[in-house]
Structure formats: structure tokens, C-alpha cells
Amino acid sequence: MKKMVLQTEFDKKKTVRWGDIPLWTASFILLFWGLGGRHLGGSEGRWAQVTSEMFQNRDFFHPTISGEPYFDKPLLTYWFIAALSAVTGTLNEWIMRLPSAVAGLVTIWATVLLGRRLWSVRVGRLAGWLMLTMFGLLFWSRTAAADTENLAAITLCILWYWTRRNKPNFTTFVVFYLIAFLGALTKGLGAVAVPIVAILPDLVFEKRWKALLKPSHFIALGVGCAVYLSSFIYASATSPQGYNSDGLSLVFQENIQRFFSPIDHKAPFYTYLYSVPMLVLPWVPLFIASLVGMLLMWKKLDAKDRWILSSIAMIFLFFTLSGSRRGYYILPIVPLCAILMAVFLIDFVNARTKTTCDWGLNIQKYFCNSAIAIEIALPFILFAFKIHGNREFFIGLGLSGVIIGLAAWLVSLILRQTTQVKLLGTKQIQDTVVLIGATTIIMGGYFCWQSNIIDSYRTEFSFIKELKAQTESLSADANIAIFPKYNAELLYYLGQNKQVQSLNDPDCWGKFFKSEQPKVLIMQYRYISQVPSQYASIFKRDPDLAEAVNSWDSSSARKKKWAAWFLENDKSLMNNISIEKETK
User: Fold this and answer.
1) pLDDT tens-place string over residues 89-131
2) What is the structure's pLDDT at 420?
3) What is the DSSP letter of 256?
4) Which residues contact residue 306 at a Cβ distance below 8 angstroms, ignoring those fewer than 6 apart?
5) Which of 54, 177, 258, 583 is packed most tightly, with the most Cβ within 10 A?
6) Pair 254, 265: CB distance under 8 Å
7) Per-residue b/e over 110-121, b at no fewer than 16 CB within 10 Å?
């Protein structure tokens, strides 16, 4: 009898293992394929330039950008990139995004295990597929930043709590806080606060908070705090002369002050009402249907079902109450949203909720079919918007759309014909499997292929490439300046070993023009009107190098184009500046 039980458990584990292979195969492809195919964009430039300057300065505790202190984020994500760079001997887009992609994989793994532990294998696996195909996870997992590492730490903390929930001892507490505070070293103390907010409903409703009054809990908390503070204390104690940025003071400013009295990012209080749907795209209809359906069944829910709803509500409330709001801040809610949908579809589709579920799935089908149609029709759409001037771009993007659209349609057709309701449980699950198959192709096609095609024709990189070539031909003592402040992405691709000046006040302008060396002034067109008036005459002539303008660029996009003026130290230029100064 014992032998039969062991054999049954072995077969069950074997089934689970084989059933997970498609999920992990798709996860590796969607997270890692073409990861380095795009140039850096947005905040990625800061991670690239900070890491690059860490190697240049041989200082990994005092981050800088163009020589100026930049301690706005903790050090761990820079160290991840630096470690990979040291091992591989290179620092490129793939290396810089790899930690985020690995963190995305860890997040999916933790989501699957959490769903499996609290509900069932089927819930965990379905939650993993939904999580993998969400815009929020794919976008940030393929971006060089700290957000996915932060997300992974938070999800692991929640998983660890439920794994060790009935063992409230020192080991349980210290591992929880180590995960949380290491996560805090990637982005901020939200990695500590959000898991606590997430598990708070269970602690309160089940009266488990009393276990936290043990001395072992406070000792573990102290260990976590010590690990978190150690890098900041060391950085402060070894701060080089002139480094006027303190990591600990920025911890307070970026985490505590920003929550209660923000200095920026003051979005409206309803920001997350539309930010959460954007992060869970394309599964918005199904998420709303699941939320409504679960609430309709509230009285029949058990403790863990109520916890998932309460946890989502608590995280939403926590970020809403913060004075500083940005759409991606609430990314940690996404794994719980994926689990909620999986729980609803597998455990709560009954006579009372069937209408709600069918409503959500029907709209979801419309979204999916529309996406397939848009992909197939992409060549005609590009032609209608007159984006056919560049033949290679038009053919490359248009052809990719047709291939992705047809592949998604074919996969959905095959899944519809091969899946059986008897094996899957309900028709709703069958519909979801078909939708997941098509969505995986569409999302994977966009992030792994189409986004790289689009990026390859971004005009700013042709400008930077030419600017780099021309500045390298100048003398070593040439002065290069950016107005009004540095752009980390541009600095990284320029690859200057010397500091590039930021003309952020009139004194900087004066020092820049007093030098006798050749000068290069770089700025975007939108800032020309902000140039100090005594230097305005410089920009009456066309720039020596300008970013190309596409026929489809909007007026706002044209204003963001880059331009560069190569200024020799000739007397006519200095006389014009002097005359305007005297006039003032």
C-alpha cells in the first residue's frame, strides 16, 4: 500500500513537471529572445552610465553620472550589471537587461508556486501563463531598471510567508526580512512595506500577528536592517572629497518624504484606476470579470480566497494613499491579479458567476481577434499613415505583422481543435487556453521582434553615432556640454572618458565660453528658447549636426530632436556674446 502511494505521488510530480515545460520554454523565449536588440531608452541610460562610470572611477559605492553624484537609487542593481560585465568582459544592452529578465523569470516561478501552494497545480500554472503574457511583466523584465528585481523580491516574500506561515520562528523571520531588505537595495523600502501590506489581512483576520511579538522576530528585523544599511554606511564613511550626495538622506527623501510630502510625481489620486489595467494588458476584461465574480461569491469564499482579494485591495490602497504616484509603482500588484484570475476561472465558474465569466471572455476574444487582425493588416495601416518612405522599415515591420498575426490565428485554431473540455474542466478554461496561445504569439512577437525593428530606425542613434565620430576627431582637450542637464543615454553612447558639462546655470555658460579649447554644445530643440539671452545669437544659425526628421514625426516629436553646434573660439563669436552681455 505504501508503495502504491509513493508511486502515485511520483506520477503526480512527473505530470506536474511535464505540464510545466511549455510554460518555462515560452518564458525563456519571451524574456530573453532579442533582449539586447534595442538601444537603451528612457531610464535605462542611467543604469548604463552609472555602471560605466563605476568601472571608470573604480568606485562601486559612490554612483555618478557625468561625474555628478547620483545616489537616487540603491546600489544592488548596478552591482548586478557590473558583476555580469566583469564576468563577460563587456557592457552592452543585453548585459544591462539580463538581471531584469532573470528577475521576471523568478517572479513567474514564485507566482506559480504561490498559486500551487494555496490552491492547486492548475491554478499555479494558469497564473504563470497569465503573468507571462502581461504587458507590465514583459515590458519591465526587458528593461534595464530596478522595477522587476523589486517585483521579484516582493513576490518571493509573499511566497515565503505562505510557505512558512505555520512556522513562526527565527529562520522564517530572518529569511523574510533578508529577501525584503535585499529587494529594498534594488529600488527602495517599498520591497519591505508592500509584502507586509500584502500579508496583513491574513495576519489580522487569522490573529497571527501575535507571533510577531516574539524576540526572534525583532532580532530578525534587526539583521535585515543591518544588511540594508551596511552599504549606505560604508558609502558614507568612504565618501570621496566633493561627493555631496548621501545615500541615507536620499533613502528618507525617496521613501518616507515622497510618500507623505512628495516633491514630484504628483499624479491624481485615481492614477492606479487606469494604471493597473495597463499593467495587466491584454487581460483587462478577464481581470474585471474575475474581480466582480469573486466579490459576488464573497460569503462562500474561504480564508485564502478572501486573502487574495483583500491583499489586492490593500496594495491598491497603499499606493493610492502615497502622495507620489506613477503608473509603474504599483507593478507588485500584478502577480496577485494573475492568481486571482486563475482562481476564478478554475474554482469559481458556476451558475452564479457564469454570466460574468462569459462576458469577460467574450470581450477578451474581441481584444485578441482585433490584435490578430491589426497585425495581419499592418502593411496597409503603415501605408495609410504614409509610413512607407523607408522601404526597409516598411517591409520589415509590415512583414513581421503578417507573420505574427497568421501565427497567432493558426495557434488559436490548432488549440481550439486539439483541446478537450473534458480534460480541461470547462469550456471557459478551453477558451482561456486558446486565448493564452494566441496572446503568447502576439506579445512575444511584439517584444522579441517588432520592438527591435521599430527601434532600429530611431533617428537619435544615427545622430549619436555621427556625433561620437565627430567629437572623437577633436583634440583631447575639447569641451563638450549639454543644455540644460545631462542625458545619461546620450552620455553612455558617446562613450566619453572625460566629464561632459551640464550647462544648468549662467555661471556654467560663462565658464564654458571662456575656455580657449574647441567647444561642442548639444541640446534638444525644445530647450533653445530657454538659453540665456546673451548666448542666443549662437543659435540663429543652423546646427552643425542635427537629428533626422521623419515625415510622420509630430510637432512635439520634432521638438525633442537633438542638435549639436561645433563652436570654435573665434573672435566674432565672443564679440557677439560680449556685445549682448553689455546690452543687458
Assistant:
1) 999 999 999 999 999 999 999 999 999 999 999 999 999 999 9
2) 84
3) I
4) 201, 205, 298
5) 177
6) no
7) bbbbbbbebbeb
